[in-house]
User: Fold these one by one.
Assistant:
Number 1:
Amino acid sequence: MRYPEIKTDLPGPQASNLVQTDKTYVSPSYTRIYPLVVKEGQGLWIYDVDDNLFLDFTAGIAVCSTGHCHPKVVQAIKEQAERLLHMSGTDFYYVPQIALAEKLASLAPGEGIKKVYFGNSGAEAVEAAFKLARWHTRGELNIAFFGAFHGRTMGALSLTASKTIQKKHYYPFVPGITHIPYAYCYRCPYNLSYPQCGLECVHWVEDTLFRTTMPPEEIAAIFVEPIQGEGGYIVPPPEFHRELHEIAKKYNILYVADEVQSGMGRTGKMFSIEHYGVAPDIIALAKGIASGMPLGAMIAREDIMTWEAGSHASTFGGNPVSCQAALATIQLLEEGLMANAQIQGERLIKGLRELQKSYECMGDVRGLGLMVGVELVKDRETKERAGELRNKLIYEAFRKGLLLLGCGENTVRFCPALTVSEEEIDVCLSLFGDVLKAVGW
Ligand code: PLP
């Protein structure tokens, strides 16, 4: 079994120098939580610039779906790079963009023909969905959720309600957006318990919101992450999306699924909304779509994507190299990685639940496929958030060679590449157990 190898103090000498230079020249707005300076990666394994070896359970923030530098993705990139680097899918046609659009349109759930818009990132995919919803419906109001992260451009940031630091000093935002509580059952915003709650968080929308402040006929769309990502890897109960979608349909409100983090096979299905049996009107995609090459996509039914030539575009969107990387990625997902995500995700959750029996601080273990979160608390009864402990755990894991990230205020997220093996899951669990032993309770 392969284990991380940490040969220097962290950060090592090379990394320390580079971190210093970075401090001088790189934007201080980035949120580096530990000083990892990456040199190269293969699969789930990363060497830093001092040749320390790490096991990566972050996948570059849920991006490297096929692992670092999967040979088939690298091959597709190399071949495309030798043929054509750029021409702009905005003004010209080329095969990789057309082929990828056809593929994504065929994968998206629901009846009828779909069309695809290409951008370069998650924020751009959401921004495009936001603009299309307004263009198509002419509605000026939108609903989004507390805890939601949809990106940092001004439109996407207006929908985001994850952390105030992301919004501080940027007001005013796009008007007409109302944030409502998400189905966060571990901390039910209505102080109820599932299933006795009868899904109050959904019914409240129709019973209260539409009768008091939001005329439903003026609402363009509901923007929702099928599983909340940055907000804390929160998995809503089985009926949540179906019932909310029913309300949206009743009032002709578009249902926009932000699958930027939860999509592309990570949860064991191509789109996580498929677990809920809902066909959204619009889907936003990015992150895992092209194994690390920059690409965002927005998929909508053809009767919704009615905007006219010139109404939205991006010079780099749908870059041919990124599109080829996406086609290779999707092939790998379909050939077994999606199924592996489900199998290994179950193993990971089972192992974490086993650890939970010994560690009081592991308040909640939840997830679907390889989108797994552990919410840390000071006390299981009061559920007081243990944010500092979370940060300490992640730092200690780094020191032991296991790369993890946080999400929400006090949750550790596990989002490894979908290529993760049984052995790698077990090494992660064993290292996480060591870290809990050292700093947990
Ligand atoms: N939507 C979701 C659900 C995300 O998780 C993210 C990023 O974390 C975004 C949108 C924004 O993506 P990007 O950082 O590529 O703009």
Number 2:
Amino acid sequence: MNKRKVLYNIEVMSFKSFNLSDNMTNALSKLGYHEPSPVQKAVIPKALRGTSLLAQSETGSGKTHSFLIPLIEKIDMNLNRPQALIISPTRELARQTYEFAFAFTRFFPKLKVRLYTSEADVSDNLEGKSVPPQLIIGTPGRLEDLLITKHIFFLGNMKRVVLDEADMLLDMGFFDSIEKIFANLDEPQTMVFSATLKQNLKDELLKFVRSDFEFENDKVMTSSGVKHHLVDIKHSGENPAILSFLNIRKPYLCLIFASTVEKVNSINRFLKENGVQTIYFTGSLDDRSRKKALREIKSNKYSVIVGSDILARGIDIPDITDVISIDLPNDLEFYHHRAGRTGRFGKSGDSWVFYNADSVAGPLALQKEGVKFDYFSLRGDELKPETLGPTEKRKLTHKKELPENEMKDIKIAKALSRTKGVEPGYKKKKKLAIEKVKRKYRRKAIRESVRKQLNKSFKGDED
Ligand code: AMP
């Protein structure tokens, strides 16, 4: 097995260099895709050659087309049998992929694509099954039910399978269903896409898929256009801080993240009460509301979207200019997913993390990880650049602890310098008294250090 791992492919290529059909080249140019993204450069040529692969790739990096283009290109349009399968972790992602795939039917009139998720009833899924689709997109449970339990199609021509957002598929416990689907296929070419390629994921995957090629480090694409900012909101509450921020910044399209559904609801309510048109999206919405919310989000009717981390993964909302994290997710990896909602395809974007003295741990951890933040403070109606970040501020507030005796003496000196009533020069007197105590202790410290050094050299003479 010739297994290779590619870390970022910098070759300049155009879609033409992939030797795609005229139909596909024409479709891509009409759809506005002129230059392949890094993941597309790495994946498309391999996928066209039938190589099974694992690719680390985030939403927004062009990964959907890195598998759609070769899948569609390889479909035999004259054969009405399922030939390619895309498994997605969520209904929203599946629908999004379906819509991208469906856009190609304008250029490939014989191409039949179907979406199978719990968005529709099984009875609706079964409609029109006498003309099987060539490309199937769906979520694991429904796919298992239709393709394996009900066995609605002959699967002997299913030659290619994509697992999209595989880390999410694993986290959501879908690998059992997927394994069952694979057990009914005849060693298809598999393309696995995942935001991370952690070892446990690979171990689980390699139980039932092959991989002859790995593509890693796709981050440059998603994050190079994003500027990261830390905003100290001091003691303004979170909701008023968001409101002031929106009034000052007036973002074109802003996505506000909070870690809990309760917080998302509270932000949404507060902004609405204060005249901001918002739309929100959380995992707790029922199916219909989710669908409606996504449609409205994508229609660009709202310039402020409030959501939980479910929006950070997978959902493609073009043109987001600003991302606000009102708090940070427990799993800091999600910060990168959040920030990656903006600054896509060469555009620039801003990711703002709000914090105050009680919530510095997350920002500090991100800085330690290498995220380069600049600093702002938000007070009232003013958003000001600052030179100090949480680390420096922390150092300033955690002054060096003084020895206990010295503290005691300073307290006594302060008490002694206090007079009845406020006398002129009282503050100066107090300052001088404190200085005197400090000088005493400094002299003591110097004497001790000299004594130690003398002792050392004395011992050294003896040796
Ligand atoms: P993803 O979610 O990673 O598949 O990225 C999807 C977004 O990238 C969609 O808005 C696509 O229309 C867009 N896209 C995909 N490939 C390209 C490309 N080569 N050039 C420009 N935009 C692209």
